[in-house]
Amino acid sequence: MIDFHCHLDLYPDPVREVRDAEAAGVYVLSVTTTPRAWVRTAQLAKGHKRIRTALGLHPQLAHERHNELGLFEDLLPRSRYVGEIGLDGGPGYREHKALQRKVFDTVLHLSNKGGGRIMSIHSRHAVDEILDQLAKVPGAGLPILHWFSGTSSQLRRAADIGCWFSVGPAMLRGAKGRSLAKAMPRNRILTETDGPFGSGPDGPLHPADAWIAVKQLAGIWEVPLVEAKRQLFDNLRFLSESGPDHIRARTPVAQRSIA
Questions:
Q1: Taking the domain 2-249, which CATH number applies?
Q2: Fewer Cβ neighbours under 10 Å: the N or C end of the chain?
């Protein structure tokens, strides 16, 4: 199983979450919301070969934590992954959009300077602006739009510039999310939970709950469960084996037919 966007450090008991994810065999991208949180969160993953920790500065915190950009720059050489980063134009955050843009632009340029990174990106009510900035700094790396909620035309534009997508159970429960997932390139999709913020009938989702999204995708794609699982692991394998040149070029693995 793959949980490519999860906030391990924000669960009530992070150590238990790590232990449970390891026992379930889940590959986890543990995203952070501030640079200051990265060192402690990376320690959670120590000794766990399936967990990677991304260096982030969440757009909802950009106006409070923009002074941590210097720390972000210092820590960036220690992580191949960047996230959670991006822009948020939702209520309560749009008034900070100018500062969000400055932070996001700085992160992209630092990632470009550092040779490119795999990036988990928040784009709520800000898809066009996200894509505009990604187009200006193509060498920043490989963008993965987490919990994409834009329009079908924005989805096509994102796919055209090489974006990937991570989708989870909460997104795929709704008709819009399922429609968007069906239109996404299958060879550029990964599963996520966004736990503990993503939730299900029994409360916050946990990394092992990414399995729910695998079953949902199999239904959306109209393929056997084993084929959906194989496609997703092919996608993860491409990312794990990609060198800096592929990441900067946003080169997708050759499309594998699973119909």
A1: 3.20.20.140
A2: C
